[in-house]
Amino acid sequence: MKTRKQPDHVLITGATGAIGSALALEYAAPGVQLTLQGRREAVLLELATRCREKGAEVCTQVLDLRDRPALLAWVRELCQCDTPDLVISNAGLNTNTGAAGQGEPFAEVEALVEVNVLAAMALVSELIPAMRQRGSGQIVLISSLGSYYGLPMTPSYCASKAALRVYGAALRSWLHAEGIRVNVVLPGYVASPMCAAMPGPKPFLWQPDRAARHIRQRLEWDWARISFPFPLNLGVWLLSLLPACLAMPIAKLFGYGR
Predict the structure, then answer these.
(1) Every domain of the chain and the residues it spans
(2) Is there a catalytic annotation at residue 27?
(3) For 150-179, how does the pLDDT look when each residue is reduced to its tens digit (9 = 90+)?
(4) Is the pLDDT of residue 245 over 70?
């Protein structure tokens, strides 16, 4: 497969998370400009130091992505100076129905949608005009294998990731002819505090550095959908094709049900 030119400027939101920080370190190299966003300043600064040690130039932005006016202003200013070549929308929240299945607190659901969906869309909407004017760029949306089949423990999370998957597919069809690549990443379980807090079994768990290497390679190949690990990705996709009367008992058999 054809390998494309390495990006000079990479922007990563949610850079203080497990996948985000692993991707930052994966791309950190001499001649690369990294723009890293996160909410936890101390963690972000430590990550920036590690990336600089690998030769990258690093700018950091401490920002709560639920503040969409601030997000839009930051991205607008960034594009006026140097529009990123590669943008990875990775920031995300999770919530669940609780150990006793009591339900998701709506305040947590609202925050989740604001970060997982609306912030990602706001980021992309502000980037597209600059990328279209330049005639190039790559936008990456971090979705989830949970977007294929809604897990009963994390309905809002799965719904938000399904929105990103469909949104990314539509963007790819729209922007492909203008030299802008759009890719959707569909990870399974990647070791992180957020993953550990999720209820249910976690088969085929990957470490973040392995996930980052896998994602980078397939972004270079411009895969529309990057799903892993096998065979979990195949199983979840097949589950999504079945009628509910079959899918629900099968999911329950594997520990995903009540």
Answers:
(1) 9-253
(2) no
(3) 989 999 999 999 999 999 999 999 999 999
(4) yes
What are the pLDDT digits (tens) for 43-94?
999 999 999 999 999 999 999 999 999 999 999 999 999 999 999 999 999 9
From residue 62, alpha-carbon distances to 70, 87, 157, 171 in Å are 11, 17, 24, 27
Residue 257 Cα distances to 99, 117, 222, 239, angstroms: 12, 25, 35, 13
Q: Which residue has the tokens 């070549």?
A: 85
Identity (one letter) of the amino acid at 80?
A: Q
- Encoded tokens for 37: 């966003």
Per-residue burial over 117-143, b = 16 or more CB atoms within 10 Å of its CB, e = otherwise: bbbbbbbbebbbebbeeeeebbbbbbb
> 9-253: what CATH class?
alpha beta
Read off the pLDDT of each residue in 92-113 and give the average, rounded to a whole number. Answer: 92
Please answer whether residues 113 and 93 qualify as being in contact, where contact means their C-beta atoms are separated by less than 8 angstroms: no
- Tell me the C-alpha distance between 211 and 191, whole Å: 10
- Please count the residues of the chain: 258
Give me the amino acid identity at 146: G
The pLDDT value recorded for residue 94 is 93
Residue 197 CB contacts under 8 Å (≥ 6 apart), including other chains:
94, 96
For 181-220, the DSSP string reads: EEEEEEE--B-SHHHHHS-S--TT-B-HHHHHHHHHHHHH
Per the residue annotation, which of 148, 157, 189, 256 is the catalytic one? Answer: 157
